[in-house]
Amino acid sequence: MVQIQKIILSAVLAVGLLPVSARADLPVYLDRSKPIEERVEDALSRMTLEEKVALCHAQSKFSSAGVRRLGIPEVWLSDGPHGVRAEFNWDNWDYANWTNDACTVFPALTALAATWNPELSALYGKSVGEEARYREKDILLGPGVNISRTPLNGRNFEYMGEDPYLTGEMAVPYIQELQKNGVAACVKHFALNNQEKWRDNVNVKVSDRALYEIYLPAFKRAVQEGKAWSVMGAYNRVWDEHCCHNARLLNDILRGEWGFDGAVVSDWGATHDTKQAALNGLDIEMGSYTDGLATESMYGYDAFYLATPYLEMIKRGEIPESTVDDKARNILRLIFRTAMNTDKPFGSMTTPEHYAAAKQVAVEAIVLLKNNGLLPLDPAKYDNVLVVGENAVRILSDGGGSSELKAKDMFTPLEAIRETYGNGVKFAEGYRTGRPFFGWEEIIPDEILDSLHNEAVELAKKADVVIYIGGLNKNGFQECESTDRREYNLPWNQDKLIEDLVAVNPNLVVANISGNAYAMPWVDKVPAILQSWYLGTMIGPSMADVISGKANPSGKLPFSFPKRLEDNGAHHFGEISYPGIEIPGKGPQQEYLEDIFVGYRWHDTKKIPALFPFGHGLSYTTFKYGKAALSSKEMSDNGTITVTVPVINTGDVDGKETVQLYIQDEKSSLPRPVKELKGFRKIHLAPGQTTEVSFSITPDDLKFFDDSKHEWIAEPGKFKAMIGASSTDIRSTVRFSYK
Length: 739
Known about the structure:
Blueprint: H1 2-14, H2 36-45, H3 49-54, E1 58-60, E2 63-64, E3 75-79, H4 109-114, H5 118-134, E4 139-141, H6 164-179, E5 184-190, E6 203-205, H7 208-215, H8 217-224, E7 230-233, E8 237-238, E9 241-242, H9 247-257, E10 263-266, H10 274-279, H11 308-315, H12 321-337, H13 352-365, E11 367-371, E12 385-388, H14 413-421, E13 426-428, H15 446-460, E14 465-468, H16 494-504, E15 508-512, E16 528-531, H17 539-548, H18 569-572, E17 581-583, E18 587-591, H19 600-606, E19 623-625, E20 629-630, E21 634-635, E22 641-649, E23 655-665, E24 676-685, E25 690-697, E26 704-706, E27 711-713, E28 717-724, E29 730-738
Parallel strand pairs: 3-4, 4-5, 5-7, 6-8, 6-18, 7-10, 12-13, 12-14, 14-15, 15-16, 21-29
Antiparallel strand pairs: 1-2, 2-3, 8-9, 11-16, 17-18, 19-22, 20-22, 22-25, 23-24, 23-28, 26-27, 28-29
Helix pairs in contact: 2-12, 5-6, 5-13, 6-8, 13-17, 14-17, 15-16
């Protein structure tokens, strides 16, 4: 009877229904009043070796085991980070066809970064976390914080641009607010996963300086400031070791240097060796014995590297049992923070609040690249409007690989434009791309493409204004997991279509959708250009509001748009730098020869102007920057300098502006970029309103990584604080010295 009472008490306590006074006879691991480390150690002490090993690998496509005997629940994961993916079958990659798993599709992370608004990132994380919690997910696979090194990377839309500071600033509030829902962020893909071509085995060679200055800072901030509960290992190799069992990345840097106490999860099928996985920092192995698409076939989950092979090696004494104890601790800590956290909120799904949040992010993400006065299009003045382009009607949550989402609602641009300008708005497809597939593409016959092209041009002759909504999509070899883009230009003859449209109608607005930069051979001929991104459920209303002037665009580019692909640093050095060179017996080998000079750092240093620079974005109003002032012209080791600049809205409509701070080291013992982003503030100003924007500069903002000493160094000397509206539009510069 006593044993039965204890079982009942354990079950009741697990759901938080007992007062503390009734917990005396219960296991420590079930007592939420105890410190989490005590609970972890108590649970670990009660587990068999087999139970500990079972924690370390998948039990289905998207779950890993708990400990049934002890009432420790399993862990459920979901693809993200733009929404909660639809349910899959237990043991294959077919959707389960549930009727209650449609979600709010939030803008892609590239769009979130384009808002340059950390407060919106917090709202985003809170909202997507509520949906994950409602769906009873314990881990959301995101955010992605890899750096956009090349515009050909098929997954750049899942990341936050080319700058580590911007990425870190936007990732931290996302993670913090997501995890308040009792859902773990799984920051990905650690590390140097900067392309999809050969992603499974390309071996990256990179300097420590580039590693620490460019590719690791956002991960570090996600761990140390965001307090992320899990991290996903990448597919690729670094220093000849796969990232999911890379001793230096996982043991030395992630846990040793940064103090990470969460769980490391492998990308699906990214584990390759039992001993290395056991010794080199991996905790949970997902998706092995698949190619990412196939079923488990003859292999059961017990055949995973960290399953029966791991158990047998421990029993034979080939691997210390302490390794599985360490993994189990990390996983139990994760479980207590998520699945066994009875204080977490209930969550909610596809609510008006979530749609409003998605729209707010989408509106602030849209970047006005160019405008000769054509925009905004006043609905009272335009009723003969032609919309051209497949993306005006395409459901852009489909395809793309693991970011594919089942939308409850998708309000397309064409629908929203018709609601704004009237049902007389005409539409021409202009081109067609076919259905989205993972890793291959549907070929559309030339006669169909020619017919669509000609139809659009003929209709454009009769319209007062043409709104072109094309760009890229999530088909294979565009912006899709597992494939990179084949070319920098727009596909499907869109450049020719845009040229022909503007030739017959000069009132052309190009409002392309993409998560990457692309060539614009027509840029000088088109009067107005908007960069619209993958904006999710509320894509249509958001674009229509900006086009019509109901909303004033305030997005800024999170990466540079090179004029030509060769102007990008990763492509300057040939195939060895991107995509790499296959070497017999060694596989693809790649060297990051541009080193620390990624994105605007490359354009500045090499004096290669970008088509549109990092941080660029126009408005329907104008902002005048005053002269910046420093609180002091000298900084000591422990000192701080404040730089302040007045900004006034000199136009006649409300608007938001992102004021950017860049730092330049005038003389350094090692090569440094011309300038580096070290701060930004997004402000809202009414017409005629002035505000002062302030930034604090510390010695950390002056440092570079000296790989010969393996430490961050700020050298005494002279520095410039540069205040601008973009990386090239510097409005005020002040000098100070560091001693």
